Input
Amino acid sequence: MNGTPDASLKPYGKRRPAAARFNTEAIPLPQNGFQERLFFLAAFLSRPGRIGAIGPSSQALTAEMLQGCHLDKMENVVELGPGTGALTGAILAQIGPRTRFLAVELDEGCVSHLNRKFPRLSIVHDSAENLQSLLKQRGIQHLDCIISGLPWASMPDSIQRPTFEAVMKSLRPGGTFRTFAYVHASWFPTANRFRRLLEKHFASVGKSRVVWKNLPPAFVYQCVR
Ligand SMILES: C[S@@+](CC[C@H](N)C(=O)[O-])C[C@H]1O[C@@H](n2cnc3c(N)ncnc32)[C@H](O)[C@@H]1O
Output
């Protein structure tokens, strides 16, 4: 990021008037798991559409997301929407010594937290919509795997489509795409629209079991391009 204001970095929809009360920039960066959950909740209350969840993913959902990904064998891996890093830590533990790993996060408060939590990791403060240019800047042609924590079901069509297009254009044929969806929201029109996009564009789309040990319960889309 070069500090220039960019329309793609604005929150989805209007900022709520109560935002100042829950402004994550005004509260200290979390030091432990409990503070991290409070931080996440505050971010959600101030920017519900963009954050899309009341809390970070559980260990059970994280394990389901990465199940069978074989990250240790991959050259280029990207995480979209790492939030407070629930999946990031597990990804870092599984990648190989030669894997190049990049995390792209839109929320400034989360980026500050991630930079402190993972000081050696390259966190990009930008929108997933700009994935192709972010890869180009770094001389990366194609990705082997994209792990997404993006709130697809709360994205307006004008953001969901170009972001999905950036994912498809960045992933190599045969590449892996993982993302989770909340059970209660899977009948929302935006969630249905997203499922149709997956089924239309990926060579295969699998669905995991429901992970009940997550708030709220969720399942994982396991897609291969
Ligand atoms: C549902 S949270 C998931 C956080 C984390 N991956 C987890 O599982 O706990 C969604 C995250 O995506 C980020 N996000 C939303 N839209 C984004 C975009 N267009 N580009 C990058 N990150 C985005 C939000 O700021 C938030 O951190």
About this structure: The chain has one domain: 28-224.
